Amino acid sequence: MATELRWALIIISALVIGGLLIHGLWSVRKKEKDEEAPKSEPAVESTPKPTTVTKREAEPEIGDLDFSAVDDEQSEDDVQEEQTSTPSKPAQAKPSDFIILHISMPEGLTMAGSRLLPSVLSLGFKYSDEGFFNRHVEPSGQGAVMFRLVNMYNPGTFDIDNMEQFSTAGVSLFMTLPCEGDSLAAFNMLHSAAKKLAEEFGAQVLDSNREPLSVSAVRGYVEKVREYAV
């Protein structure tokens, strides 16, 4: 009996000691794992970086567009025609030039669209889809364009549906050289239209340099027309 009790105590003691050893090993390993685990950093709310906004360039103010530039440069229509031409055909440089006259109102005064429209139509101009008034070879609007009337200021075009609310400090007449038909007759018509508009609105006819049109300037224009006459 004493022997059996002794063996029971030995077995119980061994179980207790084994449990303590196992618990100790488990505690040590848990502590090591906790130390090895990366410390969690406090959550930081991600703030989006500010977007850099490029300031849009200012739109051109009225008057920035100078139609006298067409005296030295090709018109946009000519450039587009060259770009869309068939590559197989060799590009042939054709001499060209422009004649332009400005009808400028006195400072502080403007041309009312309600008066300008009937005046322009009475001179044989026809409104185009591009927003210009064209003077064709035929008064009915048929045939090639001899010369055009444009707004002297930005954007250079007219809105025919809002002419009642429209006003401008000036308009410009220009023709391309060479032109189809009688170039000299076309210039005479352009010059006459400029004088009539200036007289009606109390404006002044200016040359391509925006100087008062002189007799010598008219003669120079005539000579230029004759140079390009077909």
Characterize the structure shown:
- The strands form 2 sheets. The protein has a 6-stranded antiparallel β-sheet with strand order 3-4-5-7-1-8. Strands 2-6 form a two-stranded antiparallel sheet.
- The chain has helices spanning 2-36, 76-83, 113-122, 183-201, 215-228, and strands at 97-104, 111-112, 126-127, 133-136, 145-151, 167-168, 170-177, 204-206.
- The chain starts with a helix and ends with a helix.
- It has a domain at 67-71 and 95-228: ZipA, C-terminal FtsZ-binding domain (Cell Division Protein Zipa, Chain: A, 2-Layer Sandwich), CATH 3.30.1400.10.
- With 230 residues, the chain is an alpha+beta fold.
- It has 5 helices and 8 strands, in the order H-H-E-E-H-E-E-E-E-E-H-E-H.
- Helices cover 37% and strands 16% of the residues.
- The protein is elongated.
- Mean pLDDT is 74; it is low at 40-91.
